[in-house]
Amino acid sequence: MAAVEAIILSGGFGTRLRSRLEGIPKPMVQVAGRPFLEILVDRLVDRGFERVILSVGYLANVIQDHFGGAWRGVPVEYVVEEEPLGTGGAIRKSMERIAASSAFVLNGDTWLDVDYAAMNALHQGSQATLTLALNHVSDMARFGGVELKNGNVVSFIGKGQSGAGWINGGVYILSSDFPWPENLPARFSFEADVLLPLLPSLKHAVHLTSGIFIDIGVPEDLDRAQAEFQRR
Fold it and tell me: Can you give the pTM of this predicted structure?
């Protein structure tokens, strides 16, 4: 895969996991004996990524001390939120630091089995400003769904509607010239304030997958991640 950069959003408080964190930020929770964020970064290194940017906030020093300035020979840089910026604010601030024409964006508390090389090829070939990974699940009630037409996202389905369908897998590629809406505050949600109003009209591409999707931000899925990575 061509050299690419990745931003990992790693500034969450982990309110729903507070009893299990014991003074560490949510992405550093132990999964199968290792910090979850380490598992994510290792996977990127294994797939040929050449630079990782960690967007950090709460207990940022724990993450910085663990990864340092490089991890397995790959440079690691940090964008520190002095105050919470939300997913959108964190992405926008981190995108100012990328050196390439585009960058992957991942959540530091979710795992999605996705083919990064195929997704990157799709993004470059389609000349989209945004490519997002959609994952097919047997029940989208907890996550909210995505409605597709002719390979494009046309609308979003709110949480609570049961049944099989496509969900946002939380893995994106943004081009450096991504058209951020004007008059956004410093803190905003990428999903609610950017994707929801803009995506149907935004030049975008969709990478479809049906791999394992785990959000470790809730205790039951953290337990599922423990079992999954112990098997691996």
Answer: 0.93
Domain count, the chain: 1
Paired with 34 in beta bridges are 31
β-bridge pairing 5-9 and 102-107: parallel
Range of the domain at 185: 5-231
DSSP string, 16-69: GGHHHHSSS-GGG-EETTEEHHHHHHHHHHHTT--EEEEEE-TTHHHHHHHHTT
**What average pLDDT does range 105-129 have in this prediction?**
95
Asked if 7 contacts 55 with a C-beta cutoff of 8 angstroms, the reply is yes
3-state class (DSSP) for residue 156: strand
The pLDDT of residue 219 is above 90: no
pLDDT in tens, 16-47: 555 555 778 889 988 888 999 999 999 999 99
**What residues have CB less than 8 Å from 118, skipping those under 6 apart?**
207
Cα-based angle 200, 213, 37 (whole degrees, multiple of 5): 105
Lowest pLDDT segment from 13-22, 58-67, 69-78, 190-199:
13-22
Report the CATH number at residue 35. 3.90.550.10
Written as six digits, the tokens of 2 are: 């061509």
> What distances in angstroms separate CA 201 from CA 21, 94, 192, one per listed residue?
40, 24, 15
